[in-house]
């Protein structure tokens, strides 16, 4: 007979096992902490102007609270971490990248318009012809700065402050002073000023020092022996423009380009991101300096991926066929040795090959020089650099094809080979007319997957050639061995302008190509989409 909690006088929701109850409380507490953490991230990103990240964590926190707060959604709690991870690390970066591709986001257009305006308004400039010569005078264990302006140099505001003396200043590194007040005096302090070597020894301290006169003018070090007023360079106007106080020119905010523009059309950096529509996409196909390298890299990417799959399949298939030969002894040893390259991390093998292909000291060139008297320029000749990439990638990829082919060959009925032997067929005939046709169809989806992997094989390019040798005349960092993915990386992170918008447009095109390959893979695998 079963005894329920109700018959014992216990509430129905209370478990008879304390461990379960404590676990439930711990999960609830953890859920509350996670929700509070996401809400904190929402506020933090919102205050920094990152509304997309703020919206992401708002959705994440709300869905977390709903799924783990309602009993009706208990079955969804197990799959929620996977969905949340996919949303944060896959869907959001994809949407964010596509969004950036429609903007001029770059290293010159990083900040918001408000922060750009504030940065301009914070700029100062040294007033010309208003410098004070200064000297250091000993005052006990401290020093004082004595400043003296030459006659006829100072403007009306500083005319009555021709001679100034600062408050005592410590030269000790553990007592840093950033701001000192100076007062008008009639004569310099008594005693001899400190020698020039003392000024040079404390130059860093002087450069970080700001002197404030009684009328509020700030003086900063303008030379090894002088201080000068630092005046605000820009002034904000009611219409949103800025006035350069040095020459009374006007800077107008251009919302189409995301820069403040002078009257002569000159753009001043930094700028702010603005929407540019399809400009990045059209630039890829209409700008000759970008279109030429892009198309060259585009076709090379397809050729590289296709030839890699073909070469690795050929090597793997031939070796797998040889390992199935009945007269071959020591198959286990050969199989282990042939699969060893697959066990070594790829980046280690790539770096080893990079040393072996070294044009001056590499083992490959030493062997070719001794045997044939040639020393190929593997890293400077475009054709040889591409050949080197294919050789290295074939070495890295053939063990995978070998394993696939070995598994598929073993599933072929032996009766077919016996019938072929009766008809007089040899090993070559069996391999080309029986083995290859039977394994090619189930192998096709895996070949497409291998093609997609090599289509984005960034590690090989980055570690072996870095995309070089470069394509001459390109306006963006582009190399003859670059793939689309490494080309995108170089535009985004190695270009002087760091054109994130253009790189995002190319990344979006790569995504569409990979989606097409994945769809084709599913169709060939006869998976219902």
TrEMBL record:
Superkingdom assignment: Bacteria
Domain ABC transmembrane type-1: 298-521
Record keywords: Cell inner membrane, Cell membrane, Membrane, Sugar transport, Transmembrane, Transmembrane helix, Transport
CDD domains in the record: TM_PBP2
Classification via InterPro entries: MalF_N, MalF_P2, MalF_P2_sf, MetI-like, MetI-like_sf
Transmembrane regions listed in the UniProt entry: 25-45, 51-68, 80-102, 297-320, 332-353, 388-409, 446-465, 500-520
Compartmental location: Cell inner membrane; Cell membrane
Topology within the bilayer: Multi-pass membrane protein
Function: Part of the ABC transporter complex MalEFGK involved in maltose/maltodextrin import. Probably responsible for the translocation of the substrate across the membrane.
Stated family: Belongs to the binding-protein-dependent transport system permease family. MalFG subfamily.
Assembly, per entry: The complex is composed of two ATP-binding proteins (MalK), two transmembrane proteins (MalG and MalF) and a solute-binding protein (MalE).
Protein name: Maltose/maltodextrin transport system permease protein
Organism encoding this protein: Halomonas rhizosphaerae
